[in-house]
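ok so for the tutorial part 2 we go from a plain amino acid sequence to predicted structure tokens. step 1 is just haveing the sequence, like this:
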Amino acid sequence: MPAFTTTIGMALLARFDDDTVRALHPPVLHYPVTDLTMTIDDLLTQVREARAQRWTMAIGTTFPGFGAVGVAVDGMNRQQAIAFCLSYPTGTVFEEQTGDMIKSLTAHAARVGKWSDDPFWTGVAERDGLDLSDQQPRSLPDGASGRDDRVHYDVRL
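step 2 — the prediction. this is what the tokens look like for a chain of 157 residues:
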């Protein structure tokens, strides 16, 4: 599965400079499973946006009907970056929950980044007002249904 189709891949690509991303890809990229086609310049635009906001989002680019939000963090001593994401069936997540997922995911990435001394995340929590304390799962909005009465997207680190 190509990196440009997933939030994890895009989050990892955002860790590279533009020249490296360009060197890794052909002028036109195509993923036949979802018929996603883009130019390298389109990819670089998305990578720059991901780099600036420190997270990525994809809806239907990897598999139809699924979305995800992803982040990447350097390992200790810059040995190897890791990425993680929250994936969901697009029909089950409300727009306001997406913002909550982004906030929760970036808070956890900032916590890991602070622990691993990742300069990409250093100071982000303080600057963006992210709460790095343990977070509790949130209830589903009124009228929503689910396997149980909670949305479990808070990761314990």
